[in-house]
């Protein structure tokens, strides 16, 4: 590792400043794959021990085509540190970056997806909970906005929205001779451990060959109970509303359904599903 910086120290006030800090490093070992990863970084750092404060500004990290910029503020560094700041990365090759960290993306129906990503957001971490708000995530041609939070106890909260999403493009690629993938058995054991509260909105959604708009899904999962409510969508001149609950507190899960469809153009739906009406 190589480091370069201008250093200023004030012993009386217990302050330290590193101006123009920069350096390079070669990273290797798991989970990295292939040749050592070349990492470049730069930042301006100031520390005030009396105030228990560290500030990192003009932060820049670069590796494998991923360029991250941001600012970080650390408070109460000698007691209970609290981190906050902003971070952003312009478009990068998602599959390439993940592959360097040993993550192989699955084959999808559309081989052109999962190629490009970008993100930005403001974060806060207090040792027990990290939150990102606002969050902006771009994946291929979709843009996701909102907020996200996770705690060390496993609780997850989110409020996300996107203008459009084509789910079919991201489904597993069909394998010749293999039966169609089922939308599977209910993962009851995993459901019992969930602690989630969130909401998702999609302006235009394409899934299973169907076109939906103004999609809204509320998700609550806790104490072995899952609820999807509200469930709302417009489709084929009509609308759908639903309230789905799954109670997995006992060995045999119980599902409750309350769904309504109104003013649906059945012919248009059957055409989308490629179902013959016999007419």
Give the secondary structure arrangement, pairings included:
Layout: E1 2-10, E2 15-27, E3 37-48, E4 53-63, E5 66-75, E6 82-93, H1 94-100, E7 116-125, E8 129-139, E9 142-151, E10 156-166, H2 188-192, E11 196-207, E12 210-222, E13 225-235, E14 238-247, E15 254-262, H3 266-273
Parallel strand pairs: 10-11
Antiparallel strand pairs: 1-2, 2-3, 3-4, 4-5, 5-6, 6-7, 7-8, 8-9, 9-10, 11-12, 12-13, 13-14, 14-15
Q: Can you give the helix content as a percent range?
A: under 10%
| Secondary-structure element order, N to C | EEEEEEHEEEEHEEEEEH
Residue share in β-strands: over 45%
Distance between the termini: 74 Å
Number of DSSP strands? 15
Q: Which structural class is indicated by helix and strand composition?
A: mainly beta
- The total of helices stands at 3
Identify the strand order in the major beta sheet. 1-2-3-4-5-6-7-8-9-10-11-12-13-14-15
Low-confidence stretches: none
Structural commentary:
- There is one protein chain.
- By secondary structure, the chain is mainly beta.
- About 5% of the residues lie in helices and about 60% in strands.
- The protein contains 3 helices and 15 strands.
- The chain has helices at about 95-100, 190, 265-275, and strands spanning about 1-10, 15-25, 35-50, 55-65, 65-75, 80-95, 115-125, 130-140, 140-150, 155-165, 195-205, 210-220, 225-235, 240-245, 255-260.
- It has a 15-stranded mixed beta sheet with strand order 1-2-3-4-5-6-7-8-9-10-11-12-13-14-15.
- The model has no long low-confidence stretch (mean pLDDT about 90).
